[in-house]
Amino acid sequence: MNERMLESLGQRLDVLERHNSRLKRLAAGLFIAVVAAVVMGQAMPSRAVKAIEAQQFVVRDVKGNTRAILGLNEAGEVQLLFTDSNKQPRIFLRARDEESGLAFFPKRGNSRSVFSDRGIWLIGGDGKVRAELTLDNDQPSLAIFEKDGKPRFNVQLLEDGDPKVTLVDKNGSNRAVLGILKGHPVIVLTNPTGKIIWNAP
Which terminus in the chain has less CB density within 10 A, N or C? Predict the structure, then answer.
């Protein structure tokens, strides 16, 4: 009887020791977790960072290719560049003291569209302006250019609000002018030397 009781007590003791060992490991784990939480809480700032200061920020994709750059150029002007997966520029934004500009680049070729606080320009693959829409002293004008950069067509809204359309030949001479003058339509045709050959009225 005593032997069976001792054996039973020994088995119970073994169970209790294993259970106690698990409790000790659990308590140790909880203690470590609590200490880590306290340390991390002290290391983290009590409030969110309000500003991050740097002269340049670079965004890269998973392949390590640069996809965006925000920073200052050598002249101290703020600029932002976005590139595609082929490392080609697609959007460019620059802020200057005189004026700011925004440029869009196509997927292929060098042509682009440029926007600024003075107007809009469409530039061909050769880098020459092909069309421009500008606002000068609150007077809008639209000009179309040849591939060589020479103006061929111009539309203006004059200071008094009257419209004016000018057609230009390849030599840069105004050959036809259509507009409204003091409420009356006016048409003027000239020869290559600028001499009027017909007009109405």
Answer: N
pLDDT digits (tens, 9 = 90+) for 164-199: 999 999 999 999 999 998 889 999 999 998 899 999
What gap in Å lies between CA 35 and CA 45, rounded to an integer? 18
Residue entry with tokens 């290719």:
65
CATH architecture assigned to 118-201: Alpha-Beta Complex (3.90)
Exposure class string for 18-49: b at 16+ Cβ within 10 A, else e:
eeeeeeeeeeeeeeeeeeeeeeeeeeeeeeee
What is the value of pTM for the model shown? 0.65
Q: Are strands 151-157 and 163-168 parallel, antiparallel or unpaired?
A: antiparallel
Q: Are β-strands 100-104 and 139-145 bridged in parallel, bridged antiparallel, or unpaired?
A: unpaired
Q: What is the pLDDT of residue 45?
A: 55
How far from the centroid of its chain's Cα atoms is residue 155's Cα? Answer: 31
Domain ranges of the chain: 54-107, 118-201
Whole-angstrom distance, CA of residue 30 vs CA of residue 34: 6
State the Cα–Cα distance between residues 184 and 195, nearest whole angstrom: 22
Are 123 and 130 spatial neighbours (Cβ–Cβ below 8 Å)?
A: yes
